[in-house]
Design a protein that fits this description.
Alpha-D-Glucose-1,6-Bisphosphate, Chain A, domain 3, 4 domains, alpha/beta, 6-stranded mixed beta sheet, about 450 residues
Length: about 450
């Protein structure tokens, strides 16, 4: 048995050659088909240099299991999600490493209805079978055919979330980062144009290029934001949008070129959906919560907290019947999009909100930042996470008004709140701090916590 180190909590990602290669991808696909008893599977890939090779191996593994493969070709992860539900397939696979370095690649897997796979159930079984190679005898009947109707159906689904007639004239800068977003964005904007939406776009790094000449697209990193921010200012745009490689996350910039932190986008989208469905549930992660909770409860909704990560958020969304769920890391989930995340629906909804309220994105966000300032996620590497969390709990736990262990350690200190958690995908300890209307309190709390986290044992 060969141990596979590319399996993570809810997806697959590894260094090419060392942790993932064509043979491993083929075995994973074969195991995927057997565990899910799949007869039809959707397959797509991002533009990375290694993705087409891995996609070919994945399709071969599925064919050996007698599966009908619906081939999307180059697409975003959310297109795979949508196609899996739309074609009533038994599962879907997207070959992508998203925002990870050039020498990495991976796979995102879903089951029927684009449902996430249980990490302790199907994902574990797929890993075990792929490691052992004890596959059932090959089945005849497998074939690959292009999923020609997929993109048009996807575009219709995305645009069903917005009212093109409500949009006001706006100039928008978009940075696809040479990832998969460009062709899909063009299909969306062509449909918007046919609906006479008065939007104009300036496109940056629009052509897919797996060599990523402008760097791996990961706008969550502060050092990657100036390219988009400067382009917004140079174009005199009303807002900016940037995506990661497989565009399941979108990142927003206001007309001043300022990056909009994800927690405030979650609040804005909660407002959008609660205006449509007054008593709806809204799912959020535990890292920064006060702004979202205030919006949701003020508008008559019910906030639902779920553990960080797309599998947990999707499960909570489906179980609670929530209309929308969001994470501060720019992942946004929609009940009426097969319960899945999208990097295209959010910016359209924000543009409609700006249009209806007659406000700039800066005006929408600045009010919420003043009411609920937060630190942004602060990462600590080379730290014993358990020991650091224990030190923080020992120092602050007795003074806390409330404690929550949904994901890591959350303490409500009355006028401020913290969340401290280990990252599932990287060897990092991550801190978030928020307050009610007191940015200085956030800064002071971060200083206090940094000292506790970094102190020698």
């Amino acid at each position: 048995m060969t141990a596979l180190t590319c399996f993570r909590t809810d997806d697959i990602c590894g260094r090419m050659g060392a942790e993932l290669n064509a043979g491993i991808a083929q075995r994973i696909a074969r195991a995927f088909a057997e565990v899910l008893k799949a007869e039809r599977v959707v397959v797509g890939h991002d533009p990375r240099a290694s993705s087409q090779e891995l996609a070919a191996s994945v399709k071969q593994g599925l064919l050996e299991a007698g599966v009908e493969v619906l081939d999307l070709g180059l697409c975003g992860t959310e297109e795979m999600y949508h196609a899996t539900a739309y074609f009533e397939a038994d599962g879907g696979i997207e070959i992508t490493a998203s925002h990870h370095p050039m020498d990495f690649n991976g796979m995102k897997l879903v089951g029927k209805g684009a449902a996430p796979l249980d990490p302790a159930g199907a994902m574990s079984a797929i890993k075990t079978l792929a490691e052992s190679g004890n596959f059932a005898r090959g089945k005849p009947g497998g074939e690959v055919r292009p999923a020609k109707a997929a993109r048009g159906a996807y575009v219709r689904a995305v645009l069903s979330f917005v009212d093109a007639k409500a949009l006001r004239p706006m100039k928008i800068l978009v940075n696809a980062g040479n990832g998969a977003a460009g062709p899909t964005f063009d299909a969306l904007t062509a449909a918007l144009s046919r609906r006479r939406a008065p939007l104009s776009f300036i496109c940056l790094n629009h052509e897919p290029d797996g060599s990523f000449p402008n760097g791996i697209p990961n706008p969550l990193l502060p050092e990657n934001r100036p390219m988009t921010a400067n382009a917004v200012l140079a174009a005199g745009a009303d807002m900016g949008i940037a995506w990661d490689d497989d565009f399941d996350r979108c990142f927003l910039f206001d007309h001043l070129g300022r990056f909009v932190p994800g927690q405030y986008v979650v609040g804005l989208l909660a407002e959008v959906f609660l205006a449509r469905e007054k008593s709806a549930r809204i799912v959020h992660d535990p890292r920064i919560i006060w702004n979202t909770e205030e919006v949701v409860m003020r508008m008559g909704g019910t906030p639902v907290m779920a553990r960080t990560g797309h599998a947990s958020l999707k499960q909570a969304l489906r179980e609670s019947g929530a209309i929308y769920g969001g994470e501060i890391s720019a992942r946004h989930y929609f009940r009426d999009f097969a319960g899945c995340d999208s990097g295209m629906i959010p910016w359209l909804l924000i543009v409609e909100l700006m249009s209806r309220r007659g406000l700039t994105l800066a005006e929408l966000v600045d009010e919420r930042v003043a009411a609920f300032p937060s630190s942004g996620e602060i990462n600590f590497s080379g730290t014993d996470a358990k020991a650091a969390i224990a030190r923080v709990l020992a120092a602050l736990g007795p003074k806390a008004m409330a404690r929550d262990d949904t994901d890591g350690l959350s303490l409500d200190m009355g006028d401020w709140r913290l969340n401290l958690r280990s990252c599932d995908t990287d060897p990092l300890l991550r801190l978030n701090v928020e307050s009610r209307g007191d940015a200085n309190r956030v800064a002071n709390a971060v200083t206090q916590l940094r000292a506790l986290i970094e102190s020698a044992p």
